Fold this sequence. Notes:
Layout: H1 2-15, E1 66-70, E2 74-75, E3 86-92, E4 96-103, E5 110-119, E6 122-128, E7 131-133, E8 139-141, E9 145-155, E10 160-169, E11 175-182, E12 192-199, E13 205-213, E14 216-220, E15 224-226, E16 232-235, E17 247-256, E18 262-271, E19 278-280, E20 289-296, H2 300-313, E21 317-321, H3 323-328, H4 330-338, E22 342-346, H5 359-377, E23 384-385, H6 394-402, E24 407-409, H7 423-433, E25 439-443, H8 446-461, E26 465-467, H9 469-473
Parallel strand pairs: 2-10, 19-24, 20-21, 20-25, 20-26, 21-22, 23-24
Antiparallel strand pairs: 1-3, 3-6, 4-5, 4-9, 7-8, 9-10, 11-12, 12-16, 13-14, 13-15, 13-17, 17-18
Helix pairs in contact: 2-8, 5-6, 7-8
Amino acid sequence: MQGRIWLAAAAVVAAIGLVAVAPGADAGQLTAAAEPATTLPATTVPATTVPEIPDPRPPDTTPPVVGVTLSSALVSPNGDGRLDRLTVRVTVDEDATLSVTVRNPVGGGHAHLATDQPTSPGTVSLVWLGRLQRGDGTWATAGNGRMVIDVEAVDLATNTTTVTESVGVDTRAPTLRQGPVSPEPWTGQGALTQHFSTSDPSRPLTMWTRVLRDGRVLDQSPPHPRPASTHSISWHPDAWTRTLPIGLYEGEVVVRDAAGNTSRRSVPFRVHRVVTTQRISQVAGAGRRVAITIDDCYHQAAWSSMLSTLDRLDAGATFFCNGEYVRRFADVARRTVATDRVSIGSHTVGHVDLATVSFGEALHRMLGDEAAWWDVARATPAPYLRPPYGSYDNEVLAAAGRASFAYTVLWDVDPQDWDTNDPGTVISRVLSGAKGGSIILLHTKPQTAQALETIIRSLRARGLQPVGLPELLG
């Protein structure tokens, strides 16, 4: 039995080219197989296939929910601080990439506010400053009109939602034409009406009126939305809850459209009313201020020269011109009104001694001078009157009050420059009498024009401040 097993094993060994050893044989008795070894082909083990487990979740085919809100229906990128920028708020309900573009639908450029921006669920705020990139790569402010806002959100499954909004661009101020103020002059009683016309496509229009003096706002009506067809606003202005003082003012109309663009136009108007005039020849409590007052204005070159001196030295003065010279030398009259720290008063028409004429004649000459200043320069000499020669009586004072002259202005320093051709004499006479609160009387004469600069510098050297009547009276 054992022999048969051995023979079988030997056969197998021989088949694979090994040496068989018989039982009991010595290793030295081994003999090589007669046939070379035969190489068996490699056995291929089949790969194990793992069965695919189906995903229990259905595929995501739902696009993200996107909401878009704009901070305003209009934007006005003109640098005035009102609606200069637009905030675009985009809300998504899942993780997504966001792209937002503002473009001009007629080919005027575009601005990318976001490009494939990863976004978590919630709200993203993006700001557009009103500029678009043109085809050549340069940037410019968007033109007036409708701009399109394209919003695209793509979720993780590449589902896409697009939303389109639009915004209006308006950088043009409303058209505004200012008409007159009525009544003119205004007495401070009843309503003041400002007339105008306006138009603008961005409505509603908010309108109000203001009263200004020397560039300062004294009062304004409440701003209200009004139809574009509105042509007037009536109201009762006052300054610090009291009636406006006599003098010159500006009536201004302000119109603002829905985009925040604003137009302003103003016209002058006078406040005149009956008063009791006050005579003054010097002002107590004026400190170191002294008033320079200059009469007549009959010498055009001297008048013009004195204006130049005052302007160059930044000194104040008040001119009392006769109405006929205001009309004759209209350019110099307008220059007088336009010069800083220079004011005007009335010297009537004709330089007549008012104490020798009737109340009606005196009033007529005062009103004639007021009319000359208004016609030529849209200005008023009220509330200051200087009667020619300083002559007055009770009827003259009554006429002054009727003509809105709150002050009948005399003087306490008179160098009698009409009586000398020597500038040095004029200078010495002024300096000998001037003191704080003084009112100095001068005339538009060549010798006085020559003396004026030295007078001003010398007054200042003594610690006095040359001013006009408004500054003297505070």
